[in-house]
What does this fold into?
Amino acid sequence: MEERLNAQLLQQKKHTILEIIKKNGPSLPSSVSREINLSLLFTAAIISDLVSEKLLKISNLKVGGSPLYYSLGQEHMLDNFTRHLPLKEQEAHAMLKEQQVVRDENVEPAFRVGYRSMKDFAVPMHINVEGADKIFWRHHNISEEDALKKIDEMMKKEKKPEEKKEEKKEIKEEEKKIEKKTDEIKINVIDEQKKAKKERKNIKKGKADFAEYIYEHLKKNGIEVEHRINEGDVICTVFTKFDFGKAKMLVVAHNKKKINEADLSLAYQQGLSRKMPVLFLINGELTKKAQSYLEMLGNYIFIKKL
It folds into this structure.
């Protein structure tokens, strides 16, 4: 009899908590516990049960170290808590909310990292563009169907200026061919000489094919390449030897003179998404801000100069 009363009381508490969150919107366990006059420990346990039963959802966003709990259909109300996001993510969210859909490669690196972190607000969409997989981000308040329409409009707008530009270029080239045949031949010869000189210089520096240069560098240093990726700065996964044995790492490489904190942050997020530490190969120097940021990242990123 007592067990049945306890079970009945538990159901009553669950119902009360659901009604409170439906009325107040996304809430912290501490605020719910005060409203139902129950200890935070018991309140948190009941809320956890409600999440397991899929009657409540939990946010990725943290407020004072704790996630928010909300009922189905209250996702849009999470926008009221964006002030708790890091400053750069607040800026990224504001742009995404205004534009509704953005193309990943068209935004600054810090925003790309932010969109991968703010899972409550930015929803990734993988779209095939001319045979290549491209990432677009839609704001969580816009439907997938509406987002696809916007992406289609974006692609059409991008294509039209390119077509007009190409058409003008062809006309101009034809005019040059008719009017200045001799000069064009001379220009082509000079261009070919410059191109050949540049290729010789690149090969000498190991930059003609940077990815192949990295693979050769890893091979010379006895590092075993497990899987080639070649997605932007992400080159491959490797096995490296430590005192305790082999460890799997993600190789990210940059062929630039200055490595900033945004480069480090993006490499860090790439490692996190694949759940492995990062071997970051660089051909330049870290900025002072990047050096400070590297200390914050701890042993998750290993910097090696080429």
Observations:
- The CA atoms of residues 261 and 293 lie 6 Å apart.
